[in-house]
Design goal:
The protein is α/β, with parallel strands linked by helices. Helix content is 24%, strand content 30%. It has a domain of 167 residues: Vaccinia Virus protein VP39 (Rossmann fold, 3-Layer(aba) Sandwich). Strands 3-2-1-4-5-11-10 form a seven-stranded mixed sheet, with helices on both faces. Helix 1 packs parallel to helix 2.
């Protein structure tokens, strides 16, 4: 008997865009810590990577377009922390003429990233990109950078790691260098929030995604559910859960300032801008 599904969000549910990319379970996963589901180090995104470009690309596209101009203005180098599957990386490469360093520790996400970058995007432009299979906290560069991009990552870090990240980025950037990050959630939801991630048709199959957010011990639990359906029948389903830490803007500003980064006017409604001091 066919099991028919409807993953459309209820009419009263708002479609928040914060951290559309799943965070790393239990901690960043970018420093090798296990996650909610007991993943071994490096296994974060093992479930979500398959569905990522299909169901999460739209939110990334908006951010990528906003970052094209800052990338074009870069004169030394660009660091993208949490490059994921490369949805923003390609824009950073195409808009710039400087070396681009894409940092992605998750093997599952990095597999898609490398497939996207080779053959080289834009011909010789691919010669300027280097993929770093390490945590941002372990990153070491040979040359300077004047632009850093950090999307869909900051809320996924425990506070100690988050503050360490600011220090690392401040050390990588030259004085006056810019950091762009998406706006983190300022608090936990008062009640569970559900929203659909859309659906994509490939041949006979339709891919669905659903996100449920709820408060858990002062953090936000993100539960992602993915379904693959054929003519209304569920062929398979997968789930992955993550924990995020809320971060009000004032606290974010204090943390950045302590690391030598000054929070400036927003680039867009969703993307924040900070500058390394002299």
């Amino acid at each position: 008997m066919d099991r028919r599904v409807d993953l459309r969000p209820a009419e009263h549910e708002a479609p928040p865009e914060h951290c559309g990319r799943p965070g790393v379970p239990g901690s960043s996963g970018r420093s090798g810590l296990p996650g909610l589901s007991g993943e071994a180090p490096g296994e974060a995104y093992a479930v979500s990577a398959e569905f990522y470009d299909l169901l999460h690309a739209r939110a990334y596209h908006r951010h990528a377009l906003a970052l094209a101009a800052p990338a074009a203005a870069a004169r030394l180098g660009i660091v993208e922390v949490g490059a994921g599957t490369g949805l923003v990386t390609g824009v950073l490469i195409g808009a710039s003429n400087v070396p681009v360093h894409a940092v992605e520790p998750s093997p599952a996400m990095r597999t898609v990233l490398l497939s996207r970058l080779h053959p080289p995007v834009g011909g010789s432009a691919g010669e300027r990109v280097t993929v770093h299979a390490c945590s941002a906290l372990d990153l070491s560069l040979d040359g300077p950078a004047d632009l850093a991009v950090c999307l869909r990552l900051v809320p996924c870090l425990p506070p100690v790691e988050r503050r360490a990240l600011w220090r690392v980025l401040a050390g990588l950037l030259v004085p006056g260098g810019l950091l762009f990050l998406d706006r983190p959630p300022s608090g936990v939801p008062a009640q569970p929030v559900r929203r659909g991630l859309g659906q994509v048709r490939l041949g006979l199959d339709t891919y669905h995604g659903l996100l449920t957010q709820c408060a858990e011990d002062g953090r936000i639990r993100y539960d992602y559910s993915y379904l693959v359906c054929r003519q209304g029948r569920v062929l398979r389903q997968a789930r992955e859960s993550f924990l995020l830490w809320p971060l009000p803007r004032r606290e974010l500003g204090r943390e950045l300032a302590a690391a030598g980064l000054i929070l400036e006017d927003d680039l867009t409604a969703d993307v924040l801008r900070a500058r390394r001091g002299a």
